[in-house]
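Database export, one record per block. Field names are fixed; values are copied verbatim from the stored entry.
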Amino acid sequence: MSQNKVQAYAQMQKSSMSPREIEAMAFTKAALLMEDAKKNLDDYDSYASALKFNQLLWTIIQADVVDKANKLPDLLKANILSLSIFVDKQTIKALADTKTDYLDSLININKNLAEGLMVKPPSTQTAETARPAGTSSTGISA
């Protein structure tokens, strides 16, 4: 298959994905790059490249969270920013010292976020499946 057809297919696949799926894919890609880097710590260029990709991803997230148009609740924004600061600090430590502990925490964060993004939010469920047992349709316990 020609490279143009592969690129066209990849672009079409991306356009049919939801923003949550795209974000999950980005977190997964960053985690996989860091897992690959972890296997060969002697290749510092690949190691640093994986960390820089992850840092770029988190920089984009930080910019999105502080954007005035972002409609996330303030507490969630604060939690995301706090996590992103931790990721920044871990990244700096990992770039200075190739201990796998630094990578492990970054990989786990990304995998957990990707997994969470792939779960459908309650608003996409039907009213019956989203309602906890013993509550009325208003959400107040019966």
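Remark 1: The chain has a mean pLDDT of 83.
Remark 2: Residues 31 and 107 are 5 Å apart (CA to CA).
End of record.
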